[in-house]
Amino acid sequence: MTTDDLIARLTGELKPVPRTAVLRRVAIGLGSSLAASATLMYFWLGMRPDLMTAMETTPFWAKFVYTLSLAIAGAWALKRIAHPLGSIRINLALMGALIVAIGILGFMQLAMAPPEAHYYLLTGHSVSICTLNIVVLSLPLLAGAFWILSGLAPTRLTVAGAAAGLASGAIASLVYSFHCTESGMPFIAIWYTLGVLVPGLIGAIAGRYVLRW
Amino acid sequence: MNPVEARLKELMLASLDGDAKSYGVLLNDLARHLRFYFMRRLADAHKGDADDLVQETLMALHTRRATYEVDRPFTAWLHAIARYKLIDHFRRNRIRATVPLDDAQELFAQDQSDAAADRMDVERLLQSVPAKSRDLIYRTKIEGQSIAEVAQSTGLSEASVKVGVHRGIKAIAAKLKGGADDDR
Questions:
Q1: Enclosing H/E stretch for A188
Q2: Which residues form the RNA polymerase sigma factor 70 region 4 type domain (chain B) (predicted)?
């Protein structure tokens, strides 16, 4: 096909593009994969039985605010990196600040607790499964995030993959917080954060192969 | 704003609103810029891929045009896509090449018809310089010989080669200034 033919074809196919098209694609992709992840959590792990009483406690809301803020920063990063020349430096800084903040909270709680309570604050009762569960819950989200990027134009694929992974991990940890009954801040600071970073790493590695266009 | 940017951006905004006529003009214009851009960056053995890259870039522009943010420069956006396609081409073909950190300016700096016209202008200007200076400028500035080489082959001292080149260029500069004044 000659370039002139191609131009004629593309011109013939032209349709108006709404200004919000990218945002809409991000919303559709993350919305539907959030539904998938939440459904998976509900049938596989189940909601925490004490949800109603937990909602009256600070740790529940600390977990909620932490994971929700990470999820928002991650989804925003995903939207930004979907554009050519997109940069997620601000988002990474924001996520870094949130991680530092929860780290400080965890450290303060450790400092105020008696030494014999430290081990439980760090490992809770679900240390062996917490991060793994979050990573599993992040997989549908990662697929959704990759689908979003596949129709857009990220030019730095490793960074784009990392953004997709971090967003997926953060949203998955938000979903997981409705199942998990842990309430120690050091636990959240370590294992939840790891649950966000591991999908970020998976995304970064997969990005340069999966996201090519 | 740079006039090329202003013109192309206007065409792009109209295209995003569905104006097929502007889109046709835009794509034709970009095809020329892109062809020149890729030709310059491909090694001789791969020059034949330039047209494929132009088409791939135009396709990418088409399918991903929603990612153009209207408050950003259009030329920078398109350049990022073209550069991505070029690097992807190198990767796919396992060509080890370094893509210089160029910017959008280079994609839109010139097109081929201008380059040909420039060459003709140079020839014409050189004709207006005294024969001796013309020869020296030709050897040093166009053929790229060093001052020492030219001095040796002409039997002049290096200093007089430099002076000769300098005088010739001064004469050309004076003529260009005069020419510009005449145009006004």
A1: none
A2: 120-171
User: What's the CA gap between B124 and A165, in Å, rounded?
Assistant: 60
Q: Tens digit of pLDDT for each residue in B126-167?
A: 777 777 787 788 778 766 778 887 887 788 888 888 888 888
ipTM: 0.88
Q: Which residues of B touch A (CB under 8 A)?
A: 15-20, 23-24, 27-28, 31, 51, 54-55, 58-60, 62-67, 69-70, 72, 76-77, 80-81, 83-84, 88
State how far the Cα of A103 lies from the Cα of A114, in Å rounded to an integer: 18
> For domain B3-107, which architecture applies?
Orthogonal Bundle (1.10)
Q: What is the pLDDT of residues A4-38, one digit of tens each?
A: 999 999 999 999 999 999 999 999 999 999 999 99
Closest of B14, B122, B16, B132 to residue B67, by C-alpha: B16
Residue entry with tokens 């990474």 = A92
Q: Which CATH architecture has domain B113-183?
A: Orthogonal Bundle (1.10)
> What CA–CA distance (Å, rounded) separates B85 from B49?
12
